[in-house]
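Sat 14:20. Reprocessing the chain from the morning session after the first attempt stalled halfway. Input below, unchanged.
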Amino acid sequence: MLPHLIDAFLKFQWQGAPARDAGDWDRDGWTMEVISLEGHFKLLFRDISTDTLTGRGARSFFQTSAVSSAVTLVEFGIISTSPKQPKLGFSIETLRFYRQLRCVSPRFSLDAFAKALNHYHAVPHRPYLADQLSNTYDCYLKIIRAVDRIVANELGRNQTWERQNVCPLPYLADQLSNTYDCYLEIIRAVDRIVANELGRNQTWERQNVCPPCLYEVENETKLKFRLLAAMDGNNSLKLIDSAFRAGSVHTDTRSSTSGRWILPDEVDIFKDEVK
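Finished this time. Tokens:
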């Protein structure tokens, strides 16, 4: 089936999703879930729509003349978790995105990516999703590697060409860092606006960060210890302060915008009260 999947992948990359033909009517269909970077949604696998894979909600598309359902799905930019009567699939764009993440951070696991997708789309975590993503990703890699070999062969490139002509873009990380800083400033400003509308002051977050510990109900029984806390014994400080370990002190000039962070000036007012 791999050659058919490769052909369908190249067709999708070149032409996009196929248009409905007059001969594609009245075919049996079934509903399946597709997970992409845009969202989780349902697809009705039948011949009533040519909707693109964007956004959320129900989606439907028609059965083509492909040799199997899995090949048809690839023609629409989806790789299914099973070759017959699939119930779940991942968009090619999602798999491509994870591949690039894995190239720069090999420790970023499929399980972590599956959890990130659930968090990003605000849906409950499903433990089995990582295994299904793993199977689909293996299929995607086989297709990509086969396509790379086809392209290399057409361009007359041997096995050593890539490592002889690789050209990284070292400045891209700096540009991304600057852009991400700008994004964080926007997000933090939005958080402040929301907090202000909700009547939350600067200390609200640290006072309510842990409801089981800090939330008190009326007539609650007093505990012997109102709050239990843990500290690292300044082990982190020992790694950067020359008073504990030889080396240069790396001063951090950044300031936190989180309400959970207590500034040194706020803490030092109690320094003489320690017994």
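Residues 46-59 have pLDDT under 50 and may be disordered.
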